[in-house]
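Regression test attached.
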Amino acid sequence: MVSQEQKDHVEQQVVDEQEEDAGVSSPDTTPTPDSALSDDKQESQPEAATTGGQQQAVRTGKRRGRARGRLVNAEEVMPKPSLWPLAVAFSIAFVLFGVIAGLVVLVIGVILLVASIVGWILERR
Amino acid sequence: MSVAHGEQVRVLEEEHGQVGERSLNWWGMVFFIASEALIFANLIAAYLYLEIRNNNDIWQLPHSNLFLPLLNTAILLGSSVSVHFAGTGIRKGNVRQLIIGLSVTIFLGACFLVGLAYEWTSLIADEHFSISSSIFGSAFFTLTGFHGLHVTIGAIFLAVCLVRATKGHFSKQQHFAVQAAEMYWHFVDVVWLFVVTLVYFVPLFR
Amino acid sequence: MATSTIGERATTIDVRRKRFSETYIGEWITTTDHKQLGLMYLITGFFFFVVGGMEALLIRTQLALPNGKVLDPDTYNQIFTMHGTTMIFLFVIPVLSGFGNYIVPLMIGARDMAYPRMNAFGFWLLLFGGIFMQSSFLFGQAPNGGWFMYAPLSELAAGHAFQATPHMNADFWLLGTTLLGISSITGSLNFVVTVFKLRAPGMSINRMPLFTWMILVMSFLLLFALPSLTVASVLLLLDRHMGAHFYQYGSGGDPLLWQHLFWSFGHPEVYILILPAFGIVSEILPVFSRKPIFGYTFIAWSGVAIGFLSFTVWAHHMFAVGLPSIAQAFFATSTTLIAIPTAVKIFNWLATIWGGKIRFNAPMLFALGFIAMFLIGGLNGAALAVVPFDYQITDSYFVVAHIHYVLFGGTALAVFAGIYYWFPKFTGKLMDDRLAKWHFWVTFIGLNLTFFPMHLMGILGMPRRVYTYPANLGWNDLNAMASVGAFIIGVGVILFMINIIKSLKAGQAAGDDPWDAYTLEWDTTSPPKKYNFLEIPVVRSRRPFYDKKYPDIADWKNVIKH
Ligand code: HEM
Ligand SMILES: [Cu+2]
């Protein structure tokens, strides 16, 4: 059901630029979480050498000492707003209310539910 | 809370998972199926609880005809093969194989449901065995009905995938929906093995 | 904290029309941002807290004096049922998932939850489920079978002789909890995957903040416990509407099946309600004692142990139904066992405070109150695990005392602690500490005045859920005390609301890190930017933000590397 989201993630992980290979995260960074990194150079240097290459499947990510990466527009990493969650939730509630209230409500609810699920699936993300 | 246009943030490569790792959605699907599996575990536990409590009467269907359940089992197992065929297809980027596999699976799923419906109607109409006729009836129709419901959902899921496949939504890289539908279908099949054993075969050994 | 490479690019002037999702209302109802959803969960939860609180006051008014006639008996049943249901399903769970939603991604250095749309979906289901449930009052048919909806009381026709719940009361409950259940399932899927897959580089599983740990365990419990409730509800609905016989003794069914199914959900559920509270307290105590948490590993893994054990103890709610004695022995043992990991936590918390430079701000006060009250609740829980004792006081007010010491003295105090702790992060404003202390003491006194006498009432034989009682049983004073206490708690809640409103309007600016805290959520602006972190932080110890602030004495420089 969430296949569109999946696409998104796939797209983003495919793009992988190798800017700033020099090994310095950014010139003269003011204290950031990685400010202590300079002490850690020796430890992380060899890793950086490998991850700079194309095989990022090597799981160095979690222990790497340096936050490298590329700059993107903030909007790109944030989830897009969507009305469909509300619509699907409402229709489910409606369907269950139909169980109590009778067939007419139930049928309307099912139609709403199908429509909103389709909307959810087809929404371009 | 909105963000000024043009504001930039830094993205790590690994933020969205490594290539070759299972995707987020795969994990979500696994836990979802685990939770669904527990629904069946509870249903089966309830079935056994009631069966044991009614130790005196043997819980055997009035017609005790094993042909239909065996046929249905064969159909479902076959459909597991065909859905796997579809999945392998798209993993190789072969959309045609995907479409064929999905169509066959949906067809088999429909056959299964027809078989179930046939059994239900004959039980209800000919044998007067229904959900309210006895506690065994309640348990039988609920368990098989729940499973049938899941087959239906799975078939709809596959049908959606089929439509999308014909529209060219899937490729070698992007086909999570197919993968999820495949996982779900295998799950439904495995559940059937438990159901059929419990309902049809266990009474034979009592 | 922007670094030199990161800044705002010149804003291109954009003259398109506002999209719907950018209007004020549109932004709320289309949001998929974990922080906004977290706040929406919290607001919804507190709304229902007030609803449930009103119901509680009605109950206590009815019981304040012997032979009370404030409510009629049927309404009384509806009110106490809805009180329990509302507090558990519509207050505690939403508020805890609200904290989880807001805080967990920040704590683990992620930009959002794994599935933002599902997250929104879970929230809306919760809201509609809540409305669904409460709307039953409009029909005059609110659920009336107690929060555990025992069959055959909740059956339409129990056997052929009499109609137990002929109207829709039970249906509202069954369908409502189903909605809320789906909501919780989506929520916990989201938490599990988020915590497993979206942690910042370096945040290994044993560097995760304890709150995150507890949310993780809670999510697993929800995932694996809720199916029992779903099945129980479906079977009951089939009984009620399709003529099945699952819970009808005369036709071969068994009401105890309901109890087994319900409690195999219900007991994990009570730990679902307390584990995140453990997490909140485990975050607050170290910050306000200026020490790292003591026994991190023990706290984390005792949480996991509690999670596992909680699936093995359900029948301690059924000691009086005539289980075989071997089963009673088993469940009494497992129940007592569960007290061990619980006590481990308490000792760890005490050791955390021990020798610390304690600051008695409101969050700390509430956290300390939590420990004390939860201790009482845990101890009388252990008393309930003793089968012969339980025979005497099960279904009496003693049980009511137990659940309120753990849930109100425990979870609710921890929730308040969490609000006082994270409010500056949510809003950028400090809360009024003096008013908060008033809130604490009023609540603390009120809660002990209300719930302590209930132990005695129970021992004196007052059954829970009775409509009223005659004057000559010696319960009068205790009941009067409890009712006074309930209204004192009510005053406390009003103080809390005043504080919220006042602080929102005129609270002092908090800055990004008012408590000099340790975890990553404080490494953002207050309130955090929508994308949380400009740059995903890199974690090198259990207190990443502390390391960043005090690089010379950073944790990871210590001998022990985690
Ligand atoms: C130290 C660990 C605990 C033990 C040994 C324990 C034991 C028990 C026992 C034996 C009962 C059944 C009483 C009866 O109905 O006769 C009970 C009821 C209950 N417990 Fe606990 N408990 C513990 C902790 C907790 C916690 C942490 C919570 C929730 C936050 C909790 C919530 C409840 C609730 C809600 C009930 C009442 C259910 C009902 O009948 O409505 N307990 N407990
Ligand atoms: Cu319990």
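Expected vs. actual: identical. Chain A is about 55% helix and 5% strand.
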